[in-house]
Design goal:
With about 230 residues, the protein is an alpha/beta fold. The chain folds into two domains: about 60 residues, no CATH class; about 150 residues, Metalloproteases ("zincins"), catalytic domain (Zincin-like). It has six helices and ten strands. The strands form three sheets. A four-stranded mixed beta sheet has the order 4-5-7-6, with helices on one face. Strands 1-3-2 form a three-stranded mixed beta sheet, covered by helices on one side. A three-stranded mixed beta sheet has the order 8-10-9, with helices on one face. A hairpin with a 5-residue loop joins strand 2 and strand 3. The radius of gyration is 20 Å and the shape is globular. The mean pLDDT is about 95.
Length: about 230
């Protein structure tokens, strides 16, 4: 199989990596001066992993059912599911009632797809901020570190990140995962306040708090695609 890929170069990049998107586009990230031949050899050395990932993506896409944002549809939340309920009314709110999220749809909205989707994203974002703020507080004390601030955003390539200034940014989609997985991501980012890299010392730091972090990491890699719609 002939592997087709795009090369993205940056002058200050120190590492060579491969990113495969959900639609099977392959991007190689490299330093500005690295020869094409060296990149081709690297890609070839990763052929088995690339083929496995491409096959996984094809299988996932064949099973993927896009969301319709209609009454009675189920959505993920903290590892479980809630049922979407839509009612017409003057209020423009989305609230959790038992295992149901009720979205009030104003009468003037004639094509509700984008409106309902937007309201759900707002609801997920609000829930994410509340829960993640509490988890960050818990693990900041355990790790004896401090986060300067926290943001909830729509992140496409990562679940979270930690800037060198200590600003934590989380994807609102993370709130769909079980709390154990959320805790792993929180600890992962807070550990960057000690080691701003992914060295062996960094992973040892994560392991001290989350002994089964490898299980959590694997779960997120295998199930996280279900969080995108």
């Amino acid at each position: 199989m002939d592997l087709k890929y795009k090369i993205k170069r940056r002058p200050r990049r120190k590492t060579l990596s491969i990113v495969i998107s959900s639609d099977n586009r392959i991007v190689v990230r490299a330093n500005q001066t690295l020869p094409d031949g060296a990149i081709a050899e690297f890609v070839e050395s990763k052929r088995a992993w690339i083929s496995k990932t491409l096959k996984f993506n094809d299988t996932y896409l064949s099973l993927y059912i896009p969301k319709k944002f209609i009454d009675g549809e189920n959505f993920l939340y903290l590892g479980g599911e809630f049922t979407l309920r839509i009612e017409r009314g003057k209020s423009e709110t989305a609230v959790l009632i038992d295992s149901m999220v009720l979205v009030m749809l104003p009468n003037f909205i004639k094509t509700p797809f984008d409106y309902i989707q937007g309201k759900l994203v707002q609801w997920y974002t609000a829930q994410s901020y509340m829960i993640l703020k509490e988890r960050v507080g818990v693990y900041s004390r355990i790790l004896n570190v401090e986060a300067r601030s926290m943001k909830i955003r729509t992140l496409k390539r990562t679940w979270a990140n930690c800037s060198r200034l200590g600003v934590l940014t989380f994807s609102w989609r993370l709130i769909m995962a079980p709390l154990t997985i959320i805790d792993y991501v929180v600890v992962h980012e807070l550990a960057h306040r000690i080691h701003h890299n992914h060295s062996a010392r960094f992973w040892k730091q994560v392991e001290k708090v989350i002994p089964d972090y490898k299980v959590c990491k694997k779960w997120l890699r295998e199930n996280g695609r279900d969080f995108h719609w």
